[in-house]
UniProtKB/TrEMBL annotation:
Molecular function (Gene Ontology), one example: metal ion binding
Organism annotation: Amphilophus citrinellus
Keyword Membrane: yes
Alphabetical GO biological process terms: protein insertion into mitochondrial inner membrane; protein transport
Sequence ranges assigned to domain Tim10-like in this UniProt record: 9-69
Reported function: Mitochondrial intermembrane chaperone that participates in the import and insertion of multi-pass transmembrane proteins into the mitochondrial inner membrane. May also be required for the transfer of beta-barrel precursors from the TOM complex to the sorting and assembly machinery (SAM complex) of the outer membrane. Acts as a chaperone-like protein that protects the hydrophobic precursors from aggregation and guide them through the mitochondrial intermembrane space. Mitochondrial intermembrane chaperone that participates in the import and insertion of some multi-pass transmembrane proteins into the mitochondrial inner membrane. Also required for the transfer of beta-barrel precursors from the TOM complex to the sorting and assembly machinery (SAM complex) of the outer membrane. Acts as a chaperone-like protein that protects the hydrophobic precursors from aggregation and guide them through the mitochondrial intermembrane space.
One CC-aspect GO term: mitochondrial inner membrane
Domain comment as written in the entry: The twin CX3C motif contains 4 conserved Cys residues that form 2 disulfide bonds in the mitochondrial intermembrane space.
Keyword field: Chaperone, Disulfide bond, Membrane, Metal-binding, Mitochondrion, Mitochondrion inner membrane, Protein transport, Translocation, Transport, Zinc
Membrane-related topology note: Peripheral membrane protein
Origin superkingdom: Eukaryota
Family: Belongs to the small Tim family.
Protein name: Mitochondrial import inner membrane translocase subunit
Xref: Pfam families: zf-Tim10_DDP
Amino acid sequence: MAAQVSESDQIKQFKEFLGTYNKVTENCFMDCVRDFTTRDVKPEESSCSESCLQKYLKMTQRISMRFQEYHIQQNEALAAKAGLLGQPR
């Protein structure tokens, strides 16, 4: 049963990853690709798409860090409320 739950979680995470990947790809494509008269990717389109992806990755990293900070603060507040912090051992 545990293996099924783990497999189910993996499938869910993969679906979330694909959804995020598709959104980022679509957003960067819509913002950066302007010329459909040639099959070649123009240098400005390439640099725009790289920049777009870098912004997304930095934003995701920053949100993740803030989320972790928030949870640490919440856990410390709960521990202090329960009287677990600041007591001598």
